[in-house]
Amino acid sequence: MESNSGDHAENGRHDDGPSLKKPKPSLLPITAAEIRSEFAHHDPAVARINNGSFGCCPSSVFAAQYQWQLLFIRQPDHFYINLLQPSILRSRLLVKDLINADDVDEVSLVDNATTAAAIVLQQISWAFFQGSFSKGDAVVMLHYAYGSVKKSIHAYVSRAGGHVIEVPLPFPVSSDDEIIDEFRKALAFGKSNGRRVRLAVIDHITSMPSVVIPVKELTRICREEGVDQVFIDAAHAIGNVEIDVKDIGADFYTSNLHKWFFCPPAVAFLYSRKCTASADLHHPVVSDRYGRGLPLESGWIGTRDYSAQLVVSSAVEFVNRFEGGIDGIRKSNHEKVVEMGNMLAEAWGTYTGSPPEMCCSMIMVGMPGCLGVASSDDALKLRTHLRDNFQVEVPIYYNPPKAFEEQANDSVSLVTGFARISHQVYNTVEDYYRFRDAINKLVHDGFTCRMLSS
């Protein structure tokens, strides 16, 4: 996008922003050198195999964002009055097509998936306070729901008189059936004693440990069991797995565009299927757009930097430079992260946390038991140690041993620490070799987490 700033003074007109034409695929696929150039702002000293936490943004998209910021700074009145809403609409139209929604009015742009969760849960809270839901009615969520979303559920639902039920998912996991069985048990418990299950919050991809959840099947079960509303927290999904919101069939679906779709922080979408509940959704920040529908409410929450929401078209242009577009990127990332996960597991004599079909562009890899990861605090300290001493950035997950595992294994061989590795287009095999070699050195040196200071 170009600002054409030199034309303004001569012609006495305002820049109307970028063209609203849909981005077209590039004729020439992006080269390895061009990928390196797009991510040259990454610290070259760090093996960054943690795209899942914060995502990444290529230079070309950052440049487009900067141009939007300049348009605002140059003439804010014109920007807000004439450019902002049509440009947000353009982004919403692109998201609508990406997720196969029926109508652009089903798509709102928000800061992140946590904001989307607050919007949905606020509506649930009101239903309890207003008496539409009975005290003690249940909300079901996965045990591995994202931390802030779990706290939001308790903050909005428990305080309003709702009963929160966590689905205890197994890990490591070997099949969708294990997840489905536990989910059915939770719904049955939620419906006991005459209660109703008013909302099911289901992750499409759990964050830690990372597992792809069979959301279509769980949504279908919710419909069969009379669950009022289904909310899919898919923070990691867009750009990572295929999304078809009509096929999934949930009432609400959210995903961050800054994690796996190359947008800068912070932008996400909230899909709300046209239904009675959607009419009651409101943005927590109330503006003069209140009551005009969530998409318009979300498109104006006061003076702020909206530029991240305006570069979706630039992100689409970037992914279209790759063979197969975003589908090709997803397929390649999945294949490579599985390959690297298997390489690490073989090097360490461990295993991955789930089969390939239950992984996306992230995979969990067991770490040698002799490292002595005995708590979540140990996992965090080991992650810091890897960053500070080996320049490897990777999340570590503590998986408590089951009673039978403790009896059947000694502490040296028992796998309690899992690394969540990501693969994105900027990663190279050397990133994973550095991680492999760092762990091998720690094992060789007799390192344990007990050696790390608190």
UniProtKB/TrEMBL annotation:
Q: Which domain of life is it from?
A: Eukaryota
Q: Which InterPro entries does the record match to this protein?
A: Aminotrans_V_dom, PyrdxlP-dep_Trfase, PyrdxlP-dep_Trfase_major
Keywords in alphabetical order: Pyridoxal phosphate
> Could you list the residue ranges that cross the membrane?
none
Composition bias (Basic and acidic residues) maps to: 1-19
Where does the record place the Aminotransferase class V domain? 91-274
- Annotated stretches, region: Disordered: 1-25
Write down the Pfam families for this protein, in alphabetical order.
Aminotran_5
Q: Read off the PANTHER family from this record.
A: HERCYNYLCYSTEINE SULFOXIDE LYASE, L-CYSTEINE DESULFHYDRASE
The name this protein goes by in its record? Aminotransferase class V domain-containing protein
Organism lineage reads as: Eukaryota, Viridiplantae, Streptophyta, Embryophyta, Tracheophyta
